[in-house]
Amino acid sequence: MKITDFYNYKKPGRKISMITAYDYTLAALAAESAVDCILVGDSLAMVMHGHCSTIAATVDMMALHTAAVSRAVKHKLVVADLPFLSMRKGLGPAMEAVEKLARAGARAVKAEGLDGHGEIISHIIGSDMPVMGHLGLTPQSVNKFGGYKAQGGDPASAQHLTDQALELERLGCFALVLECVPEMLAERITGLLKIPVIGIGAGSFTDGQVLVLQDMLGLYGAPPPFVKKYMDGRRLVVEALNNFDSEVKNQVLPERGPRVVSGAAAQGE
Ligand code: KIV
After folding, report:
1. What confidence tier does 261 reach under pLDDT thresholds 50, 70, 90?
2. What spacing in Å lies between the alpha carbon of 42 and ligand 1's midpoint?
3. Does pLDDT of 65 surpass 80?
4. E strands within the chain?
5. Are residues 179 and 247 located together in one domain of the fold?
6. Is the CB of 179 within 6 Å of ligand 1?
7. Interatomic CA distance for residues 198 and 115, integer angstroms
8. pLDDT at 260
9. Residue 81: pLDDT band with limits 50, 70, 90
10. Residue 133 belongs to a domain with what CATH number?
11. pLDDT tier, 257 (very low <50, low <70, confident <90, very high otherwise)
12. Residues 141 and 245 in one domain
């Protein structure tokens, strides 16, 4: 899937699937799958590094994981998150962040929020680096929100989110992630925008869905409540590890073959 396909998919109602990937091995599996698009999300700070929020993600951390993912993904769009504060230190640092992610292999960046950095988003797009917007429960704003709380629940904030979504489209974003907003609001915004809206915890009327790979595989300990698990990954991995452990301790592994005699013994000395 290329950037240009995003517009083409919206009109006929062809849904878009996006999944996160943070390392070479799982990214190679995502590349092999039918999933449309790969996101190197800043949730890697939590899933890969054990931090309690995405605020810990840095540009260097994002670039390292983007490079690993890009080595595995050749024929799908790789989008990388601009991490916390990377758009709030002025245009120069923001463009340096974009450059690092682009040189690491990202073909587009995702930017959370809009208020206060619309001009920077516009400059990034004007520099030919495509931008995916991200509104609703933007995790980088968890401290402002006072926790991981659904957004857009009252008329004023629903209107503000709608205005922001329209503004991101006007600035030239090629797609929008809407996270944890009421289904009816997500449906309304999806209907208003010409660019595709990719939902996460935002109901079933968006143009596509995104999930964190470790969440949907059941590997991460604390996924958000809306996540559908497609595999009981933790159980499967722990079971495999316990099998290995028991085979080592019971001397089942390595399997015994004929004894290899080498050195002096082999020469009959
Ligand atoms: O970082 C992330 O995981 C995200 C989500 C939208 C999946 O941004």
Report:
1. low
2. 6
3. yes
4. 16-20, 37-40, 77-81, 108-112, 131-136, 175-179, 197-200, 208-211
5. no
6. yes
7. 20
8. 66
9. very high
10. 3.20.20.60
11. confident
12. no
Q: How far apart are CA 219 and CA 111, in angstroms?
A: 26
- Per-residue pLDDT tens over the stretch 118-146: 999 999 999 999 999 999 999 999 999 99
Please check whether residues 223 and 251 belong to one and the same domain. Answer: no
- For residue 105, give both structure tokens: 């292999």
pLDDT at 97: 98
Q: What domain range is 95 assigned to? A: 3-232
Ramachandran category for residue 177: left, alpha or beta (phi over 0 → left; psi -120 to 50 → alpha): beta
The yes-or-no verdict on residue 262 having pLDDT over 70 is no
Structural domain count of the chain? 2
Share of the chain above pLDDT 90, in %: 89
Q: Residue 120 is encoded by which pair of tokens?
A: 């920077």
Nearest CA to ligand 1 atom 4: 41
- Please indicate whether residue 183 is annotated as part of the active site: no
Residue with tokens 């857009």: 152
SS3 of 211, please? Answer: strand
Mean pLDDT over residues 67-83, rounded? 98
Ligand 1 contacts CB of residue 151 (under 6 A): no
134 Cα to the center of ligand 1, angstroms: 9
Atom of ligand 1 nearest to the CA of 41: 1
Residue 252 Cα to ligand 1 midpoint, Å, equals: 43
